[in-house]
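Batch manifest, entry 17 of 40.
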Amino acid sequence: MLYRTRIISILLLSFSLIACKREKVKTKTTLDIYNQFTINNKATFFYVPPGIVSLFLDESQKGNKELKDLLADVNELTFLILNKPNEKSKDLQCLNELSGQLDSLDFTDLAQIKTSKEFIKVKVERKKRYFEELVVLVSNNDAMYCISFRGNIHPKKVVNLVKPENVVAVTNLDRFKQ
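Output type: structure tokens
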């Protein structure tokens, strides 16, 4: 009898330990990062329905066809805009800070493009066969933009959009200036 009680106790203890093992949960999300960045840097953060953006894209412009194709997979589109501070080094510091915080959530750099007017960094969070979130960081003379596309985004659509000749569609955000 004592032997059975010990075995049952060991089995119950084993099951309880297995049941108590918890999966590692993200305690911080990209929305947490964007909200905190907005508060700390007096930035503007807002949502735009992806379908509305698609309606206003002129497919004859470079990259807009690829952007429209990608937006079909997007459930949530957000913008974080930081008007340029007077110090250029402060802007690069903010861009690197935001990029580093995204890296802490397992984002991967997909592309970096430097033009005469802009610095563009593309980051992705991959889940299974799709990208769960695509983030485009853009720094130009006027502002720093962080555009977040969330959904089940097919990698081929992302690759088509981030080609240097097409990425202008995402970076043409002058209409969002404060």
